[in-house]
Amino acid sequence: MSAVDRDRIAAAVAEILAAIGEDPARPGLETTPARVAEAYAEFFSGIGRDAADDLGDPVPLEDGLTAETVLLRDIEFRSVCEHHLLPFIGTAHVAYLPGDTVVGLGRIPRMIETLASRPQVQERLTEQIADTLVAATAARGVLVVLDASHACVTTRGARQSGSTTVTVAARGAYTEPAARAELITLIGRGVA
After folding, report:
1. pLDDT at 3
2. pLDDT (tens digit, 9 = 90+) per residue, 109-142?
3. 27 exposed, middle or buried (CB, 10 Å; 0-12, 13-18, 19+)?
4. pTM
5. Per-residue buried b or exposed e for 47-61, using 16+ beta carbons within 10 Å of the residue's own CB
6. Largest Cα–Cα distance of the chain, in whole Å?
7. Rg of the chain over CA atoms, in angstroms?
8. What's the fold here for domain 52-189?
9. What per-residue confidence (pLDDT) applies to 150?
10. Buried b (16+ CB within 10 A) or exposed e, 157-192
11. pLDDT of residue 159
């Protein structure tokens, strides 16, 4: 796991404040560099961590049980876009078709948090969530849908405050159009 160098971040933030014409020592800004350093330590806490560890050990299905789709909807996440170091905030929907094992439902949001807590682009984050779940569980199918609002779109440039970006990653059985469509319907309907 890499450690965030808070002192270096604080010094860099003070330099940025000076570069935009501000006085980093003025009241109101004097503690900003340290606060930004603390925020960055949180935002980027996933660097160097293996997200598969968050899934724990898969639990074998009990005798006679066969698991159909497991779908977790509306998992909130936040990340930082690697292009502008601005946040993107959204909702993840994750479905998987278990093989012989399942994972604890609370572990999937933890895995997403780890992957999101590093400089990211939404497209890669979507793929990483799907690939991590497949690798850690040997799932027969995985579908990940992310819907996020990007500050680089909502607050600068085009300034489209109501826009969101949707990305999808499918693996295994969920690459088949009918299975994928059924899950997209369940995600959108909000009722399984």
Report:
1. 83
2. 999 999 999 999 999 999 999 999 999 989 999 9
3. exposed
4. 0.92
5. eebebeebbeebeee
6. 69
7. 20
8. GTP Cyclohydrolase I, domain 2 (3.30.1130)
9. 95
10. eeeeeeebeebbbbbbbbeeeebbeebbebbeeeee
11. 87
Q: Are 131 and 96 a contacting pair, CB within 8 Å? A: no
- The class level of CATH for 6-43 reads mainly alpha
The segment(s) of the chain belonging to CATH 1.10.286.10 are 6-43
Residues known to be catalytic: 81-84, 122, 150, 152
Copy the structure tokens of residue 125.
């984050």
Alpha-carbon distances of 156 from 36, 39, 87, 122, 160, rounded to whole Å: 20, 21, 12, 18, 8
Structure tokens at 58: 């898969």
Is 90 exceeded by the pLDDT of residue 28? yes
CA 41 to chain centroid, in Å, comes to 16
Integer Cα distance of 119 and 42 in angstroms = 12
**pLDDT tens digits for range 60-106:** 887 666 678 999 999 999 999 999 999 999 999 999 999 888 899 99
- Identify the sign of the CA torsion 181, 187, 191, 192: positive
Task: Show the tokens assigned to 51.
Answer: 């997200």
In the chain, CATH 3.30.1130.10 sits at 52-189
Is residue 122 within a helix (H) or strand (E), and if so which, with residue range?
Answer: helix 122-137
